Every structure is written in structure tokens, then in C-alpha cells.
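Figure S4 source data
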Amino acid sequence: MPSLQHAGLVAHYTETGNGDPVVLLHAGASSARQWRKISPQLESRFRLLAPDLIGFGDTPPWGGSRDLTQDDQAALVRELMRTADARPAHLVGHSYGGATAVRVALAAPGVVRSLVLIEPIMMPLLHQAGERVLFDEYRTFAERFIAEVDAGRDEAAMRFFIDHRNGAGTWATTSTESRAKLVAVARQTADAFTSNLNNPTTLADCVSIAAPTLIVCGAETTEPERIVTRILQDAIPDAGYAVVKRAGHMSPLTHPDGVARLILAHLACR
């Protein structure tokens, strides 16, 4: 697995395929391996770069004296883009990775050829758009998760997280191996929640995004995630919008074929 030095740590990423660069940014509590069902459908036409974001997969946790931010993750992505392929890249980001992709596009618009945002976690936009009840719902969810981890109840935190994201009872049907992997990144996931709550992106920022953008939403996702995608559709100029039927928030994992088709269709025109 290739790696690069960044911010005092060794960040790992995967690299497959040939062609114009596409950077794939995973969700929280996940890693570059999230894209293993989608990559084979893209790599015949594109060079795929998928980093393990800070604190996930094989990339070590954040070691700074302050809280981890979305901009710290975006800086890692920009460094990967600079060192691995100097050409402007397509960015595909899911959930936490989607919010990171937006921060990259705002900080360095010249390096972003297009965006695919799959339910990006940008919850402060709810508050800015007047959806304060939904924002408070998300904040309560995030703060409960963080409190469970701070109290040393990592497994309870991850059970709460997985059942909330994928439906009650999902944790009970998750394999022992997968549970162990999720519990192992509980602290990093709590740090990601903190950065989600403090995401500085504004509606005015979104209006300034010039990269061709496709926003993807699961038909059965939770209400806060769905409303955020609609807010982004209204704010980003000429943003496209697509719904993945029968999918929840984790559509790249549960409906990889449908998500891959949407990505390919968007990139083919760019």
C-alpha cells in the first residue's frame, strides 16, 4: 500500500487503474477499502486514488494539540493530489469524505475537475438554512456518541452509531470481526463527529463552488442527511441530483453498482 508523509504522520492510500485521476474519500468509521466494490467498475477508465483519512484504516490518528478538523483532512487530500498526480482530479466523497471533498474544492478550486458528493455530512448547513430542529437532532446524536466514547463505552457508542445509520438491530447482525474493527476506531469516529459539528462551510461558500457537481442521496436515508443534500442542490450552481433507490446512507457499500453507474455517468461528461 503506497504512502506519503504528511503533518508528521505516514498516510496510506490505494492506487489502481489508468486514466484521469479520481480521488475517492471514504465515510467516517471506514477506510479506503470502502470502495472495493466500486473500484473495479471505474479503474478501466480512471486512475483511482483512495486515501485512508487521518485516523482511519492504516493512517494513524491525529496527533495535534487541537481538535481534528475537516480542513486537516482536506490538506491531506490536497497533498495526495499534488504528489500522486499533478493533473486536476475528480473528487468522489461519501459522508465524512464528502464534507472533506467540499473543503478541498473551496481551498483549491483549480485542482478539482468535478465533484460527486454522496450524502456529505455538513450538518451546520441545516442550522444556516433554518432547519434548526433537524440540526439539533443531529447534534444530540453526535454528542451522545462522543459522550459514550469519552466515558470509555466504545462498543455502546458504535452500536448506537450503526443502528442509527442503518436501522435498529443492524449491530446485532454484524459479524464479530466487523464489530471489533468498528470498536477499534470509536475514538477516531468521535473526533470526526467533533469536526462535523464544527464544519465551517457556509451557504455562501457552497454558492461559490464552480466545479461540476453531482449530489447523490439514498432514497431511505435519514431526514437530516436528505435535507442537507437538497440544501446543497439549491446552493451549488447547476448541481445535478440523483437518488439511489432502496438505499440508506451507506449506498456505496449496499448498492455499489448503482452508485458506480452514477459516478461514471457524471465523469463521462467532464
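Figure S5 source data
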Amino acid sequence: MPILLIGIVLIIFLSKSTVTIDAGEAGVLWKRFDGGVVIDQAPLGEGFHVVAPWNTVIVYEVRQQELFEKMKVLSSNGLDIILETSSWYMPKPEDLGRLHQEKGENYLERVIKPTLRSAARSVVGRYTPEQLYASKRDVIQSEIFDEAKKILDGQYIELNEVLVRDVTLPATIKDAIERKLKQEQESLEYEFRLVTAAKEAEKQIIEAQGKADANRILSASLNDKILQDKGIEATLELSKSPNSKVVIIGSAKDGLPLILGNN
């Protein structure tokens, strides 16, 4: 009987003295008789560890985690905006002891969520619904990340990214914005057609002016002497043709040769 009792006590002792830490986790050691949370040593890493049975190991996940948030915030003109975000965060392993001592295992609710909500309200409150809907999503995403990261860096937490997944406006505001954007697009298309038509008309005017200038220059250069010379040249070329013909020099109008043929 004493041997059995000793065996049971030994089994309990061993079960209380060992801990296995899985992949992506780390352990904070709490010493009951030696100062509580250990903050001056690295946390326990992955694998099998033996600890005194009166001490405790608190296991934390230290890989990157995701927080999805859907929150109601106000735009600069006081309208309700529904903002959906995803945030990637992880505790800093080297500061895990301090995180446990100052924030506790529920640091997500105590620190991260309030920080992100505050940053989102602060950033979105700078913009109108039109800006949020049309072109500012990347901007507010970056600004929320910057504001939240400044706070969380001092809380032993690493914020890796904040993504704005969706921005939902009141239905009436969304419809009004879409109508306005459609009208602006139609106006831009109309202006483009006007500019295109004006450029085409200008092109035609330039071409017509060019033709008129060319005709005027050509007319000014063609005097009677030049025309007679050209006529004689053409007559001489034609006289070389094998077709039957009679060439009478100087008998045509303006003194040009007259050609008579049987064809």
C-alpha cells in the first residue's frame, strides 16, 4: 500500500512538473516562491520542459493572428459609417513576461480592440462620405495602421497590418454619390466629344487652308510662257506616237501646235 501511494504521489508530481509547448507558442513562467512572473529571462520555447510543481507556465500563441472588426464610426459631417477591418497582430516574444504581468492573457480585449476602434474613429472622422466611398480607402487604411501602431508598440504587441475590407454608407448617401459620379462621368464624356469634334474641325480647316494656299501658289506661277512650253513638250511627246496624225505648228489657240489625226 505505501508503495502504491508513493507511486501515485510521484505521478502527480511529474504531471505537475512538466509542460509541453506546441509550435507557434511560448510559455511565461510564474514562480510562486521567487518573485512571480519571470520577466528577465526569455520565455519558454517550443518543446518539453520540466518545472517545479509549485510554479506555473502560462502558454501564449506568438504566431501572427487576425482580428476582424465591424464597427460604426462617424464621418466628418456626422453620418454613420460601417467600417469592416482585418488586423494582423502578434505579441512580442521577448516581452511576453511583461505583457502577461501588465496586460494579462486577455490583452486582445483590453488593449488591441480599444486601440483599433479609437484609431478608426479618429481617422474616419476626418473625411466626408464622398471621400471614403470614392478614393480614400487606401489612405484611411494607412492612417489607421499608423495611429494604432504608435500605441501598440509600447504595449509589447506588434501590429503588422490593418486592412479596410469594406466601407458601408447609408443607402441614401450611397445612391446620391453614385448619381453624382455618373453625372460627372457623362459630363466628362460630353466634354471629350466636344474637344474631339473641335480638333477634327480644326484639322479640316488647316487642310483646306493648305490646299487653297497650294492652288494660289500654283496659279501665280503658271504664266502664259510656261503654259506654252508645257504644251509644246506634250505635243512633241505625242508626235512620237505611231498613230497617224498631222501636226500644224502655231494653229491652235494661244499659238500652240494643233494635232489632226485619223483617230
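Residues 2-61 form one domain. The chain has a mean pLDDT of 79.
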